[in-house]
Design a protein that fits this description.
The protein has 278 residues and is α+β, with helices and mostly antiparallel strands. The chain contains 7 helices and 14 strands. The strands form 3 sheets. Strands 1, 2, 3, 4, 7, 10, 11, 12, 13 and 14 form a 10-stranded mixed sheet that branches. Strands 5-6 form a two-stranded antiparallel sheet. A two-stranded antiparallel sheet has the order 8-9. The N and C termini lie close together (9 Å). It is elongated, with a radius of gyration of 21 Å.
């Protein structure tokens, strides 16, 4: 996990100017619960406070003294790798959206929800006793490769400038987006203990694990929803090696983790950070 470092700490400048000079990409760990935007704002607030900014408000973009964004939204109920761009690194985030991603998903057979995951309300229950592991693995074959997928209604996709999930929560009627091409590089069943099952997924950009699990349930003459979702890899960043935990959201750790836009002198000796900071 990112942050396995020695026990000798050496102070490093954490001034606002140093923070504002950063350009590149790094990864943080998003926990289950908050939205990706909430997590990014918490990160910016922590860094601005460390840099000495009084009462920072990361949500006020026009007055923001730190240019930062994330690539590849994780649902509030999901956890794992969230790639962050800082400075000119924000221009590289579109590449992260299109790159390969890996997930571990725990699904539950027999129950469908309006959001296609455990945060929603159950809208359908069906028997799943007829489904065997062999049946399940056979169905996975039809969801591997280049496939067509309908995005969930509850998603970050937008209509008239507003997210579909926000419109639905406001009571607006929302039509499903048309099916679109997505790519699934690898899809394997790791565990099958009905009603629960665990999938390992490697996919391309624009893919929704919630839609996959919902479609799988239907294909098996039942229904299903995502109970737990963890993103373990996004582009070159992995959960085990690169994702900074909340306790590591400091300028010093980011300097060590940063993948710069181009060669620069932003790197530091990461062997000097202490375990207490991890």
């Amino acid at each position: 996990m990112a942050g396995n470092m020695s026990n000798t700490a050496v102070p490093i400048s954490s001034s606002l100017s140093k923070l504002q000079s950063l350009n590149g990409l790094f990864a943080i760990y998003k926990k289950e619960g908050p939205t990706s935007a909430d997590v990014l704002n918490a990160l910016k607030e922590a860094l601005l406070k460390e840099a000495g900014v009084q009462n920072p408000n990361p949500r006020k973009r026009k007055k923001q003294s730190l240019k930062m964004g994330h690539g590849g939204t994780l649902d509030s109920g999901a956890s794992g790798v969230l790639v962050v761009g800082v400075g000119n690194g924000t221009k590289m985030l579109s590449t992260m959206l299109a790159g390969s991603k890996k997930y571990v998903a725990v699904g539950e057979l027999g129950k469908a929800t309006d959001t296609l995951d455990a945060t929603g309300s159950v809208i359908l229950e069906k028997d799943f006793g007829h489904i065997t592991r062999i049946d399940f693995e056979e169905k996975l074959k039809s969801f591997t490769g280049d496939i067509m997928q309908v995005p969930p209604l509850y998603s970050a996709l937008k209509k008239d400038g507003q997210r579909l999930s926000v419109l639905l929560k406001k009571g607006h009627k929302v039509e499903a987006k048309p099916a679109r091409p997505v790519t699934v590089y690898n899809l394997t069943l790791q565990e099958f203990k009905p009603p629960l099952f665990t999938l390992d997924i490697e996919c391309g950009g624009g893919f929704y694990v919630r839609s996959l699990v919902d479609d799988l349930g239907k294909a098996l003459s039942s229904c299903a929803h995502v109970k737990e979702l963890i993103r373990t890899k996004q582009g070159q960043f992995t959960l085990e090696e690169h994702a900074l935990q909340e306790g590591q959201w400091t300028l010093e750790h980011i300097l060590c983790a940063l993948q710069p836009c181009k060669e620069s002198d932003q790197g530091v000796d990461c062997s000097n950070l202490s375990e207490a900071d991890t």
